[in-house]
């Protein structure tokens, strides 16, 4: 069968880097006589329309490859779930946590070589309401930080550092809350909870290794709960979280389950793949081998 690749380039991700990278990739594809089509999008609706069209035409699709960040991937994945179309990304966003966890580098020459070998596998996803998430669902302090960081005009210019600066800003006013978790079928109450991260891959927030043991092919959700700590100790934990060294520290619970329901007295922000999903109550479960990815 002839291979045919479809590239979706999000012009808005990573300070416009995606279009520059695309130009280089296009030259490589031409040199190698690879069959491809490309769309450069300004909005997520344009991207979705492109994919809808491909799926309706029932094309032979060897792979859809995004040039963008986690927000772009989130949209494409939510459209491709339920199909057997393989997906991959050349990371050109500001956070790129999905690519980081899957070992996809910014060396696009090397990554294109790998993609053209056409190896695939199925991975798990997180199911949250009627959406799906590839990386991490964040609830509480971290979601508030993501919300603030997304509003910041300067986010794109600081990359991962934008989250760090926003963390300090949110820390000044944020109040931890009491939360009831239903873990599989077991109820547990946690007091003074700062955040709950529910992970399919290890990273969020531009390189924060919140759930270092998360694997997207183990049929499990990895859950990190940070609670019952004064602010200064939270800062200490956050200083260790980039290397994933926080999990054994006091005030951190790390669990693995298949499903979780989160109820809180006050509504808390919820994000998935860094995109705002709404507020608690919320439930998340693992959807095993639900998504086809290129290796
Ligand atoms: N196909 C698309 N074209 C244009 N914009 C899109 C598309 N898909 C999603 N978006 C929106 O573009 C925004 C930015 O994209 P994305 O998140 O990929 O880049 P980023 O913010 O630079 O990277 P990251 O999320 O890794 O930090 C997202 O909030 C998303 O909603």
From TrEMBL:
<dbReference type="InterPro" id="IPR045540">
    <property type="entry name" value="YegS/DAGK_C"/>
</dbReference>
<dbReference type="InterPro" id="IPR005218">
    <property type="entry name" value="Diacylglycerol/lipid_kinase"/>
</dbReference>
<keyword id="KW-0067">ATP-binding</keyword>
<keyword id="KW-0460">Magnesium</keyword>
<keyword id="KW-1208">Phospholipid metabolism</keyword>
<keyword id="KW-0443">Lipid metabolism</keyword>
<dbReference type="GO" id="GO:0008654">
    <property type="term" value="P:phospholipid biosynthetic process"/>
</dbReference>
<keyword id="KW-0808">Transferase</keyword>
<dbReference type="Pfam" id="PF19279">
    <property type="entry name" value="YegS_C"/>
</dbReference>
<keyword id="KW-0547">Nucleotide-binding</keyword>
<keyword id="KW-0594">Phospholipid biosynthesis</keyword>
<dbReference type="GO" id="GO:0046872">
    <property type="term" value="F:metal ion binding"/>
</dbReference>
<dbReference type="GO" id="GO:0016301">
    <property type="term" value="F:kinase activity"/>
</dbReference>
<dbReference type="GO" id="GO:0005886">
    <property type="term" value="C:plasma membrane"/>
</dbReference>
<feature type="domain" description="DAGKc">
    <location>
        <begin position="1"/>
        <end position="132"/>
    </location>
</feature>
<protein>
    <submittedName>
        <fullName>Diacylglycerol kinase family lipid kinase</fullName>
    </submittedName>
</protein>
<dbReference type="InterPro" id="IPR016064">
    <property type="entry name" value="NAD/diacylglycerol_kinase_sf"/>
</dbReference>
<dbReference type="Pfam" id="PF00781">
    <property type="entry name" value="DAGK_cat"/>
</dbReference>
<dbReference type="InterPro" id="IPR050187">
    <property type="entry name" value="Lipid_Phosphate_FormReg"/>
</dbReference>
<keyword id="KW-0479">Metal-binding</keyword>
<dbReference type="GO" id="GO:0005524">
    <property type="term" value="F:ATP binding"/>
</dbReference>
<dbReference type="InterPro" id="IPR001206">
    <property type="entry name" value="Diacylglycerol_kinase_cat_dom"/>
</dbReference>
<dbReference type="InterPro" id="IPR017438">
    <property type="entry name" value="ATP-NAD_kinase_N"/>
</dbReference>
<keyword id="KW-0444">Lipid biosynthesis</keyword>
<comment type="similarity">
    <text>Belongs to the diacylglycerol/lipid kinase family.</text>
</comment>
<keyword id="KW-0418">Kinase</keyword>
């Amino acid at each position: 069968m002839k291979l045919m690749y479809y590239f979706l380039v999000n012009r808005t991700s990573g300070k416009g880097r995606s279009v520059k990278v695309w130009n280089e990739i296009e030259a490589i594809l031409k040199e190698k006589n690879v069959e491809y089509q490309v769309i450069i999008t300004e909005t997520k609706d344009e991207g979705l329309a492109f994919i809808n069209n491909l799926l309706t035409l029932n094309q032979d699709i060897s792979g859809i490859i995004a040039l963008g960040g986690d927000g772009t991937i989130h949209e494409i994945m939510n459209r491709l779930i339920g199909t057997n179309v393989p997906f991959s990304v050349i990371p050109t966003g500001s956070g790129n946590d999905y690519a980081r966890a899957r070992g996809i580098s910014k060396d696009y020459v090397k990554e294109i070589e790998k993609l053209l070998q056409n190896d695939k596998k199925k991975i798990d996803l997180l199911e949250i309401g009627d959406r799906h998430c590839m990386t991490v669902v964040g609830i509480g302090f971290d979601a508030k930080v993501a919300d603030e960081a997304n509003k910041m005009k300067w986010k794109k210019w600081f990359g991962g550092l934008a989250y760090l600066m926003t963390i300090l800003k949110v820390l000044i006013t944020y109040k931890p809350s009491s939360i009831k978790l239903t873990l599989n079928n077991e109820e547990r109450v946690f007091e003074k909870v700062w955040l709950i991260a529910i992970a399919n891959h290890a990273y969020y927030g531009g390189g924060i290794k919140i759930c270092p043991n998360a694997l997207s092919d183990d049929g499990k959700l990895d859950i990190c709960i940070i609670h019952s700590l004064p602010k200064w100790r939270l800062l200490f934990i956050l200083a260790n979280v980039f290397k994933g060294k926080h999990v054994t520290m006091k005030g951190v619970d790390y669990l693995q389950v298949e499903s979780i329901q989160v109820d809180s007295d006050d509504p808390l922000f919820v994000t998935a793949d860094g995109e705002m999903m709404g507020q608690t109550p919320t439930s998340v479960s693992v959807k095993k081998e639900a998504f086809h990815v290129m290796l």
